[in-house]
Specification:
CATH topology: Arc Repressor Mutant, subunit A
Number of domains: 1
Number of helices: 6
CATH superfamily: Winged helix-like DNA-binding domain superfamily/Winged helix DNA-binding domain
Helix content: 55-70%
Number of strands: 3
Structural class: mainly alpha
Distance between the termini: 12 Å
Largest sheet: 3 strands, antiparallel
Low-confidence stretches: none
CATH class: Mainly Alpha
Strand content: 5-15%
Length: 131
Amino acid sequence: MFGAIGMTTLALSAASAGELTISQWRVLVVLGRVDTARVGGLATAVGVSLPSTSRLVRRLERRGLVTTERDMEDRRATLVRMTRQGRNIRDSVIIRRRAMMEAAIAARAPSLPRGLAEGLTAIARAFDAYE
């Protein structure tokens, strides 16, 4: 698991020139699964406080990775959407991380017992669900 986190961090650094934090990445992951999210919902999904999430969203918005607007159904709430640029960075990180995992498995595959390499490949694919 720590290896997967390390690979995500490396892929994140390469894709965003080191300017995207893990918490900001987590916001993009959540937004990649839904079209629109309220800041409060993002806070719950990311596991940080509402004020911290608001700051994360503002930073992402300044970078052009998300847009925000008032929720017309609940004017106290703010809706957040990922921009095309945000989606491009998210996709780039996922592609880089997947390539790193596959390379790591391929480098070890010849020395692994038969069937284990396939199992590790399945595990690497399962990590994609957690982006």
